TrEMBL record:
An example Gene Ontology biological process: transmembrane transport
Keyword Signal on entry: yes
Keyword match Acetylation: no
Protein name as annotated: C4-dicarboxylate ABC transporter substrate-binding protein
Protein's organism: Mesobacillus campisalis
Length: 334
């Protein structure tokens, strides 16, 4: 009798284990079939070249994940300001944001140097910085201390210039002019060092602000200036090339960790790959966009760039970035 009871208990345990195993397998299959959706937010207009890259990325993610990972693109700040969406990302919401080093400098202070004036002369130089060990340590700090995961930081949007209604040939010409720029300390101090009065406001409000006389101009790259039709409210593009705008796409670490490992890898690899191709397209189209601006009646001014570089040194001193710049230059062999 005892042997029979032992046999029954063993059989019951075996059946229970088999049931658990079957259930586990069912859950795994269900997990494999789960669809993850990421909402991509940017202030850039629908027609901006970099936004085209986001749509390309969305297609590749869905195709290569066999529909398990989808990206929805929301241009023109449809999901709110960058700061609001970044806060949502930190809380674990399924949102991604196009951002820049100066804004990330609000979390990891040294990272703000990516947005400092004349740090690099072209995309290749600034790309080297974002691929270096120092930058990687900043990315680690963002993830571990602030819950922000950088998917890639190789999205290029071109050099930024001053957009005004009077020609700017030297820093002194900016004196007294209220110029729209993002609100991060690095960009504010940089614009101030070069002679203007920085005014922080969302890019989507710059057109009406110039039109109404609330500000005297803005600073931006061709890829935003032309699609946003700024040529309707400004007369001059002054080619100072003071910032080489390299951007990153970030998500919340909490949301990223909900993805299966294969989708994490796919998201990281495809975001970097698409950015690389999109950056080349944008670098190649600078001349074309400039000609389009001229065709709309904008006059392109070639200012004394060396004078602006000299004035911009004040920003490095004010922000305490002088030694950090030398460290980075040594790292990339510049």
């Amino acid at each position: 009798m005892k042997k029979r009871w032992v046999f029954l208990l063993v059989m019951m345990a075996a059946l229970a284990l088999a049931g658990c195993s079957e259930q586990s397998g069912g859950d795994t299959k269900k997990e494999e079939g789960k669809v993850y959706t990421l909402k991509m937010s940017t202030q850039q207009a629908e027609t901006a070249p970099i936004v085209k890259g986001f749509y390309d990325l969305a297609e590749r993610l869905e195709e290569k994940s066999e529909g398990r990972l989808k990206m929805e693109v929301y241009p023109s700040a449809q999901l709110g300001s960058d700061d609001d969406v970044i806060e949502q990302a930190e809380q674990g919401v399924n949102v991604a944001v196009l951002t820049d080093g100066s804004r990330m400098g609000l979390y990891v202070e040294e990272m703000g140097i990516i947005g400092a004036p004349y740090l690099a002369d072209n995309y290749e130089d600034v790309l080297k910085i974002t691929q270096g060990d120092t930058f990687k340590s900043w990315e680690k700090s963002l993830a571990e201390e602030h819950g922000i995961r950088v998917l890639s930081f190789n999205w290029y949007d071109g050099p930024r210039h001053f957009l005004t209604n009077e020609p700017i040939e030297k820093p002194e010409d900016l004196k007294g002019l209220r110029i729209r720029t993002p609100g991060s300390p690095v960009w504010q101090e940089s614009v101030k060092a070069m002679g203007a009065t920085p005014i922080a406001m969302p890019w989507g409000e710059a057109y009406s602000a110039v039109q109404q006389g609330a500000i005297d101009g803005a600073e931006a790259q061709h890829t935003s200036t032309y699609p946003s039709r700024m040529y309707e409210v400004i007369k001059y593009v002054n080619k100072t090339s003071h910032f080489q705008l390299i951007n990153g796409i970030i998500v919340g670490e909490k949301w990223f960790e909900t993805l299966p490992e294969d989708l994490q890898t796919l998201l990281l690899e495809e975001t970097r790959a698409v950015a690389e191709g999109n950056a080349k397209e944008i670098a190649d189209m600078q001349g074309e966009l400039e000609e389009k601006l001229k065709a709309e009646g904008v006059e392109v001014v070639e200012p004394d760039v060396e004078a602006f570089k000299k004035a911009a040194e004040q920003a490095y001193e004010k922000l305490g970035f002088t030694e950090l710049r030398e460290q980075i230059y040594k790292e990339i062999g510049r």
